[in-house]
């Protein structure tokens, strides 16, 4: 394992070129075989502008030999890729057929707070929620998922997540691949611990603290899939839809990724990197060049986040749940001469997001991702005794009657929080739906300084977009300099946040950690604009 430590050290030092040496990484391997890459179906508004989405339970097979209880949108697991045109009105009809309350949040969509689908926009079981949303934002790759406070992690993990692409019809002109499922591939990255049975999501209290990670990596709901691609430029739209895992993606043969867009839209021009970190909630669009016709694997480096020193029990747990291999296989790309390659040349320029001007900020605010470790350790010791041991997986003896619609044995962080008193914070105190933490002026820019303590946390804000000014005092990586709504904070990050969407008191917007266990445990705050 010495070389793994060396590699981690190298990562910390930012020596990306060091990573490309075959000696350390085992060089290029033959692409692995696997199931074909599933493609989320393309769904566009009908003639009347309507998009129907139905959230329901189902069963899903991550592998041919296994099947697990799941939930999905217009299908048993995950959802469609909804493509909407900028400048149009879209009438959503979101049916909740889950048998329990839910919400559907449009992560990345510019919508006023009453249409945002946050914790205040509850859809009752059997009800249909019909927000009419005027699409008014740059072309971008977004997504949607439930956001019921305390139940987000469990519901999202069941498979309730879909994709939402805003298009302006200009991709041809930009010289970008745009044939859905052919040379324009949405890739939903997740990890799973349980692949078989009735209870996919069984976090214990340690998982609430670290975030729930799995031992299997899934892309679009398949483990280690293979995507046939044209032998040319292919657009990969990455979404990290895992509850907690950070992905550190690289091609096994070290070929470059050309990042063309982040959460909020295009970059000024493609930015090249060999290693791309994507935190939960983040999106990056990448061009990959397969014109050499050689199959290649996509791999991810280990996610060390959350393995901080909390004593032996914790280390044992972290060790047991970590991926066995140094570097995990994500998927393979297999160039196929039978698929016509549309594009071979990288575009020279895209859409310039302009320079962020911190001088325009009206206010500065500081936030601390507060794990409340001392308090939670104390609560956990107590909860552990009550619940039958902290290493024992699920807590025993819980009253599930308050959680109608759940399968037998399903638990969520909310259950742990309620029964053990665990809580986390970002706004000075654990989340409270009745408390407004920030009032920002509509149309203003503010500088938000975010700090972490024990581990890195992905920050996400609804109803606002930001630019990353600095990370630990230094300029961020070039692909992090465009418009974003989610960013991984490890140490200190300074953001220039633009508040440009209305939120009244009754329906505030959220800002939170996108490790869903943390969000559910209260690492979330609320703001309004006035
Ligand atoms: Cu992706 Cu508040 O969420
Ligand atoms: Cu969001
Ligand atoms: Cu967090």
For the termini, the CA-CA separation is 55 Å
What's the overall average pLDDT, rounded? 88
Residue runs with pLDDT of under 50 for 5 or more positions? 1-28, 385-402
Largest sheet: 7 strands, mixed
Please list the strands of the largest sheet in the order they lie side by side: 13-12-11-15-20-17-18
Secondary-structure-derived class: alpha+beta
Helix share bin: 10-25%
Beta-strand segment tally: 31
Which percent range describes the beta-strand content? 25-35%
Shape: globular
Helical segment tally?
10
Rg from Cα: 22 Å
Draw up the topology in text:
Elements: H1 2-13, H2 16-19, H3 22-25, E1 42-43, E2 50-60, E3 68-73, E4 81-85, E5 89-97, E6 105-107, E7 128-129, E8 132-134, E9 140-145, H4 152-157, E10 162-167, H5 171-174, E11 184-192, H6 205-210, E12 216-219, E13 222-223, E14 226-229, E15 233-240, E16 247-251, E17 257-262, E18 265-273, E19 276-278, E20 283-289, E21 296-300, H7 312-321, E22 328-335, E23 363-368, H8 373-387, H9 413-420, E24 438-440, E25 445-451, E26 457-461, E27 465-471, E28 486-489, E29 492-498, E30 509-513, H10 516-520, E31 524-529
Parallel strand pairs: 1-4, 2-5, 4-10, 11-15, 14-22, 23-25, 24-31
Antiparallel strand pairs: 2-3, 5-7, 5-8, 6-9, 9-10, 11-12, 12-13, 15-20, 16-19, 16-21, 17-18, 17-20, 21-22, 25-29, 26-28, 26-30, 27-29, 30-31
The chain binds CU-O-CU linkage (C2O) and copper (II) ion (2 copies).
């Amino acid at each position: 394992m010495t070389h793994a430590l060396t590699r981690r050290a190298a990562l910390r030092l930012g020596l990306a070129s060091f990573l490309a040496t075959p000696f350390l990484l085992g060089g290029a391997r033959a692409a692995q075989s696997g199931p074909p890459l599933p493609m989320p179906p393309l769904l566009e508004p009908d003639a009347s502008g309507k998009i129907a989405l139905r959230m329901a339970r189902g069963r899903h097979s991550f592998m041919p030999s296994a099947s697990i209880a799941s939930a999905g949108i217009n299908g048993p697991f995950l959802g469609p890729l909804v493509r909407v045109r900028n400048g149009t009105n879209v009438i959503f009809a979101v049916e909740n057929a889950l048998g329990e309350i839910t919400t559907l949040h449009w992560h990345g969509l510019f919508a006023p707070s009453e249409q945002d689908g946050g914790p205040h926009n509850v859809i009752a079981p059997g009800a249909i929620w019909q927000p009419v949303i005027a699409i008014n934002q740059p072309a971008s790759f977004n997504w949607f998922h439930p956001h019921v406070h305390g139940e987000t992690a469990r519901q999202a993990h069941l498979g309730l997540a879909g994709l939402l692409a805003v298009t302006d019809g200009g991709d041809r002109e930009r010289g970008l691949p745009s044939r859905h499922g052919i040379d324009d591939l949405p890739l939903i990255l997740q990890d799973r611990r349980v692949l078989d049975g009735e209870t996919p999501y069984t976090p214990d209290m340690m998982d609430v603290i670290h975030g729930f990670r799995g031992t299997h990596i899934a892309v679009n709901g398949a483990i280690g899939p293979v995507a046939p691609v044209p032998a040319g430029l292919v657009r990969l739209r990455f979404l990290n839809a895992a509850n907690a895992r950070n992905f550190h993606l690289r091609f096994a043969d070290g070929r470059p990724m050309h990042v063309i867009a982040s959460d909020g839209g295009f970059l000024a021009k493609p930015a090249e990197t060999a290693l791309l970190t994507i935190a939960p909630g983040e999106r990056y669009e990448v061009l990959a060049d397969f014109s050499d016709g050689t199959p290649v694997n996509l791999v991810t480096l280990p996610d060390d986040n959350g393995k901080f020193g909390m004593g032996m029990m914790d280390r044992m747990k972290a060790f047991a749940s970590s991926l066995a291999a140094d570097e995990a296989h994500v998927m393979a790309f297999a160039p196929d001469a039978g698929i016509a390659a549309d594009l071979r040349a990288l575009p020279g320029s895209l859409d310039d997001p302009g320079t962020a001007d911190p001088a325009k900020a009206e206010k500065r605010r500081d936030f601390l991702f507060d794990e409340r470790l001392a308090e939670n350790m104390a609560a956990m010791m107590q909860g552990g005794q009550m619940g039958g041991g902290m290493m024992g997986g699920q807590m025993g003896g819980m009253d599930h009657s308050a959680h109608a619609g759940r399968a037998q044995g399903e638990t969520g962080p909310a259950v742990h929080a309620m029964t053990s008193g665990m809580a986390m914070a970002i706004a000075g105190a654990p989340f409270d739906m009745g408390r407004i933490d920030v009032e920002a002026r509509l149309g203003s820019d503010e500088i938000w300084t975010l700090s972490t303590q024990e581990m890195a946390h992905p920050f996400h804000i609804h109803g606002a977009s930001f630019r990353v000014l600095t990370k630990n005092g230094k300029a961020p990586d070039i692909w992090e300099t465009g418009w974003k709504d989610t960013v991984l904070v490890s140490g200190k990050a300074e953001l220039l946040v633009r508040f440009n969407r209305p939120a009244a008191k009754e329906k505030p917007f959220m800002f939170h950690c996108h490790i869903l266990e943390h969000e559910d445990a209260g690492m979330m705050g609320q703001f309004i604009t006035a």
